[in-house]
Amino acid sequence: xxxxxxxxxxxxxxxxxxxxxxxxxxxxxxxxxxxxxxxxxxxxxxxxxxxxxxxxxxxxxxxxxxxxxxxxxxxxxxxxxxxxxxxxxxxxxxxxxxxxxxxxxxxxxxxxxxxxxxxxxxxxxxxxxxxxxxxxxxxxxxxxxxxxxxxxxxxxxxxxxx
Length: 162
Prior knowledge:
By secondary structure, this protein is an alpha+beta fold. It is built from six helices and six strands. The protein has helices at 2-19, 31-42, 63-79, 92-98, 117-126, 128-134, and strands spanning 46-48, 51-53, 60-61, 103-112, 141-146, 152-160. The strands form two sheets. A four-stranded mixed β-sheet has the order 3-5-6-4, with helices on both faces. Strands 1-2 form a two-stranded antiparallel ribbon. The longest helix has 18 residues, at 2-19. The radius of gyration is 21 Å and the shape is globular. The termini are far apart.
């Protein structure tokens, strides 16, 4: 009887592992893919809700903006919220200034839940306000990030002071 109980105890953990549902596939962020998709979208005229936008110049990647985006994405993941305002009440301006980015104009897109760069970009293009940020010709640089848990996406657009 004692051997039977031990056999059940040893078999039970293996059974529980097998009975669990498979994990969702890992979401990956590819900075080059994100920048290419955004610049492709900017190359053609587009309607964002009721606003018409002409084609605009491509954006350049900026690491300071990407760092600000990463910190905000991870803040949302770590503190379980979804907002443009950080858990410390920071705005996108506060966050890029912490990275020593000297800006002339700035904007931000956030998303929760897309499972790929393509899904995130398409979701933003389908949303009038987010689409207008993407098509804003005043922006010359961009940084973006995905939170460490693969749930929150942040894009920061800006133009530096001249």
